């Protein structure tokens, strides 16, 4: 008998060393044996399971597919392989690959934890969907920027006339304001479409928040009341506007989700003192704070402590989970802090604190008021290259009003044919994306000429787009632009045709 006992102990010790779970269920659905890994998979000590039925240990398990497969293996002797998504009594979730087969008067079940793999697959599918969304957003924004260029520029041209009544001028200025606001929306779509993070810039925080609130309200829906309260002068923060916008939008949408899409979301912004108390060493200076508060049920203490942890179990997440970790990272990179306060039944408040900087030179513009166009002091012959007829005709008209001679070409190939002919040009203005030959290829071809012709590139994409950032050899003007901006960019090149590199603002 001693030899048998020693052999059983050896087998038990061996099974406990296996990286997979092994359990034996008898015909009465009682646990007769579990190795250590199987107990860990079930999140229960072995002594709490052995001798008890599965129904006693996990109430409701009898309604699951796994339970039915175990019964089928016991009664019909049919082996089975399956994936089992399991919700534990504490609300967390796991996913396991199960293999079960009948032995003696019971069934043996092996289990492999594939929870992490499943989470990675979900994240991968989400990343693929986001990539498709980014590409779609970028394409829509690019095409819409072409339309906004036409709307804004022609409105700007009409405003320069002297035969308008005060009422007509006011109406056209409203059109221009709407065009500028639409341009802000397309810039957000373009920011969504790009992978990289933008550069931080001085940002007047109050007008930024007021503009963002107008965009945010429709996103929250009519059942959510959005309130904005600003106390005093918020000053200027040095941030990537798109990244901070992502933080505010994410926190507001999380607040909506916490209230099941109905309730009140409050945005309260204020200037803090010269010392950020409780933020640790090295935080001296001026700060502003944005508090985002909801009327939801609050966050449980066990979750609250880990709210910014990207590894937080899916069932325990508040809002996007991984998105909160991204918010924390964005705010930290901006030199700020983010923390949360919550009580059960009393809602939650996320506080974002950002350092402020000197205000010089960052006052936001509203409407780009018409101002006298300036010229390089002579008539230049300019080749305008764009596959969009309306954009070509618009730029030709803008340049001719400034005293230049403008000639059209529908793509890079046609432009190159004209440039290789008898015609002479002082400058080429070319769109980046065109069929047959795009702007970059055309500019490279012109660099090979004995007397290179300066090129101004234009694009409906953001200057932060990865493909544009790689091409710093040529000045870049982004759509939508006004007549003044186009003429200023052209005149700058005509004055210094050999200077290439910095982007045209």
Summed up:
With 505 residues, the chain is an alpha/beta fold.
Chain oligomer state: single chain
Radius of gyration: 32 Å
Summed over residues and divided by their number, the pLDDT gives a mean of: 78
**What structural class do you assign from the helix and strand content?**
alpha/beta
Helix segment count? 16
Beta-strand residue percentage: 15-25%
Per DSSP E runs of 2 or more residues, the count of β-strands stands at: 17
| Termini gap | 90 Å
Shape: elongated
Low-confidence stretches: 277-283, 313-322, 360-377, 499-505
Helix content percent band: 40-55%
Q: What's the main sheet like?
A: 7 strands, mixed
What does this structure look like?
The protein is α/β, with parallel strands linked by helices. Helix content is 42%, strand content 22%. It contains 16 helices and 17 strands. The chain has helices spanning 2-17, 36-42, 46-49, 54-57, 65-76, 115-159, 166-193, 205-220, 241-258, 301-304, 322-333, 389-401, 412-420, 439-447, 466-469, 483-495, and strands at 21-26, 31-34, 80-87, 93-103, 106-113, 201-204, 224-231, 236-239, 263-271, 287-294, 337-343, 347-357, 381-385, 405-409, 427-431, 455-459, 476-478. Strands 6, 7, 8, 9, 10, 11 and 12 form a 7-stranded mixed β-sheet that branches. Strand 1 (21-26) and strand 2 (31-34) form a beta hairpin. The longest helix has 45 residues, at 115-159. The chain is elongated, with a radius of gyration of 32 Å. The N and C termini lie far apart (90 Å). The relative contact order is 0.08. Mean pLDDT is 78; it is low at 277-283, 313-322, 360-377 and 499-505.
